[in-house]
Amino acid sequence: MQTHTTTTPFGRRSISLGQILNQATAREMPKDAAVQKWQVFQHIREAKDLLGATDRSLAILNALLSFHRETELSAAGDLIVWPSNEQLAARANGMPPTTLRRHLAVLVECGLVIRRDSPNGKRFARKGRGGQIEQAYGFDLSPIVARAEEFAELADAVKSEKNAFRVAKERLTLLRRDVVKLIDTGIEERVPGNWGRVQQTYQAIIGRLPRTASRQLVDDICTDLHSLYTEIREVLETFAKTQDMDANESHSGRHIQNSNPDSQIESKGSFREKKEAGGTAAETDNVRSLPKRELPLGIVLDACPNLRDLAQGGEIRHWRDFLATVELARPMLAISPSAWREACDVMGEQHAAITLAAIYQRTEQINNAGGYLRSLTDRAREGKFSTWPMVMALLRSELDAKKPMEQESNPLNSSDNGGAAGGAGLEISDALRRTLSGGRRTPGFGGGPRNDG
């Protein structure tokens, strides 16, 4: 008896060109093809995203494979199974009928099974006199045999992509850690450089990273971070080598001078005579009195309160925040990058930032901020400028401005015992109050700016 193998579904279901191509692939597979069904099913599970399958549809495919009694699927054997919807739902953990039909359609669209519908849409098998199956209507599993190699290749591609994504995320984590710690090292060791701009560059790169990113985006961000990391590392290594060379030269210089003490004394005497002959006594005394200790961040912020308005959130908690805020103030003062780099090279980035903050505090009294910064840089290069007296002058002006207001509010507390300095707006220690009341002339705000900004 001649039978016909149907290629179209029952009822209003349509057939697509992709399904026709899938049927042709299954029909052209070798006659001796055979695969282990559960091994192929594992490959399909791993490549389900590339195939367009879902977890529910794979649960149904697992149930369909369980209705095939043999563990091996062979092109020479019978590859059609015909379970009812009730049987499928039972083996698919009680899936509702509507969900079952929807995900069966997904399996057909993905080309994992082929519908072999009967004239009335029922699934059954017709057997001959010898008990052999002559005609079966249901789901044909031949695509699993025909596309077994394709599924294995897709599974390998998915594994490779997952491994590459894992490596990319590890690289991103390591680069982020290295860049952040190298920036901190540059700031803490006072390596010359625009570290505020470097931090902004780092934040801009990391800001492109969403909560869930593709591997391509992670690779692009890693490339940018690696470039930034390379630049920072080269700057730090160059500075470290320079410091090491300076230390060696300094050690050799001390050894040579100690071997000729008469020459050393003569040199010191001639240098002292030149200094006294070339400068006034006031300048010499002023240079000798410049403090060498570091300024606390709190005192700098009390002296330059206007800088807080530029800070993100209005708070400056660390020197890192202070440097980043000063970087925002520099273009507002029309200070050229070259003048800023020169100041950082001569004073160090932290003291250059304190100087710029003080200029920003007195911006209404300074016509040319760039020229003024260059002038202070030249004085610092000659050893005639320190940020400490400049900050003390700003603190003294703040106290002088508060004193009349406090005397008006409390006439009984207007004595000369320092009560005005203890106002609610600015609290300082007794030692600092005595320093401020010393009346020492402060370099930095005494002379006019140089017009070469």
TrEMBL record:
<feature type="domain" description="Plasmid replication protein C N-terminal">
    <location>
        <begin position="13"/>
        <end position="186"/>
    </location>
</feature>
<dbReference type="InterPro" id="IPR036390">
    <property type="entry name" value="WH_DNA-bd_sf"/>
</dbReference>
<feature type="region of interest" description="Disordered">
    <location>
        <begin position="404"/>
        <end position="453"/>
    </location>
</feature>
<dbReference type="Pfam" id="PF11800">
    <property type="entry name" value="RP-C_C"/>
</dbReference>
<dbReference type="InterPro" id="IPR005090">
    <property type="entry name" value="RepC_N"/>
</dbReference>
<dbReference type="Pfam" id="PF03428">
    <property type="entry name" value="RP-C"/>
</dbReference>
<protein>
    <submittedName>
        <fullName>Replication initiation protein RepC</fullName>
    </submittedName>
</protein>
<feature type="domain" description="Plasmid replication protein C C-terminal">
    <location>
        <begin position="296"/>
        <end position="396"/>
    </location>
</feature>
<dbReference type="InterPro" id="IPR011991">
    <property type="entry name" value="ArsR-like_HTH"/>
</dbReference>
<dbReference type="InterPro" id="IPR021760">
    <property type="entry name" value="RepC_C"/>
</dbReference>
<dbReference type="InterPro" id="IPR047611">
    <property type="entry name" value="RepABC_RepC"/>
</dbReference>
<feature type="region of interest" description="Disordered">
    <location>
        <begin position="245"/>
        <end position="288"/>
    </location>
</feature>
<dbReference type="GO" id="GO:0006355">
    <property type="term" value="P:regulation of DNA-templated transcription"/>
</dbReference>
<feature type="compositionally biased region" description="Polar residues">
    <location>
        <begin position="407"/>
        <end position="417"/>
    </location>
</feature>
<feature type="compositionally biased region" description="Polar residues">
    <location>
        <begin position="255"/>
        <end position="267"/>
    </location>
</feature>
<feature type="compositionally biased region" description="Gly residues">
    <location>
        <begin position="444"/>
        <end position="453"/>
    </location>
</feature>
